[in-house]
Specification:
Blueprint: H1 11-28, H2 37-42, H3 48-63, H4 74-128, H5 134-141, H6 150-160
Length: about 160
């Protein structure tokens, strides 16, 4: 496999990017409403078709106020429709950016792990022939590959067992 991640990102580029992300987040913070996972699950969802419906309905509510019920908050509907539309472009840009960042992290992690396994194998071979420093390095790295003993598995199962 080719090494896709062959260029390190300069620290100054990362620092600048993080500053811009934090600045954008700070600029929008007064208008954002973080939700818990449970809250997100409970809300009705709005996709592309629903966004078009909401936007059109907001227009009708504004242009035909005499046909709207008195309990409908038309101003709130207009704000909700505008916010949904305005943030869509920001969301789409961030979603694509997040996917690219995560993909690059995934590639770098995969390539780093693959290379590390090769290096670890070399250290294991060197440890078998008593090369200086190899046994200490293998001893430090080996716990990553340790498998739980049967006693540890039994203890874990007993700890997770339902109460009687």
């Amino acid at each position: 496999m080719d090494n896709l991640n062959a260029t390190a990102i300069p620290a100054a580029v990362l620092a600048d990017a993080l500053k811009k992300i934090r600045d954008a987040r700070a600029a929008l913070a007064p208008y954002l409403h973080p939700l818990t996972t449970e809250q997100r699950q409970e809300l009705p969802k709005m996709g592309d078709k629903t966004l078009a419906f909401v936007t059109k309905m907001a227009g009708y509510a504004q242009n035909l106020p005499s046909l709207m019920p008195s309990y409908l908050d038309v101003t709130g509907l207009l704000i909700d429709a505008a916010t949904s539309n305005d943030l869509l472009e920001v969301y789409q840009e961030l979603d694509g950016f997040t996917l690219d960042v995560d993909s690059t992290r995934m590639i770098a992690g995969s390539e780093g792990y693959t290379a590390s396994l090769i290096g670890y194998g070399a250290l294991q071979g060197a440890a078998k022939t008593n090369q200086p420093g190899a046994q200490a390095a293998v001893a430090e790295l080996a716990p990553r590959f340790a498998r739980p003993t049967n006693a540890a598995k039994a203890t874990k199962k007993a700890g997770n067992a339902p109460a009687a």
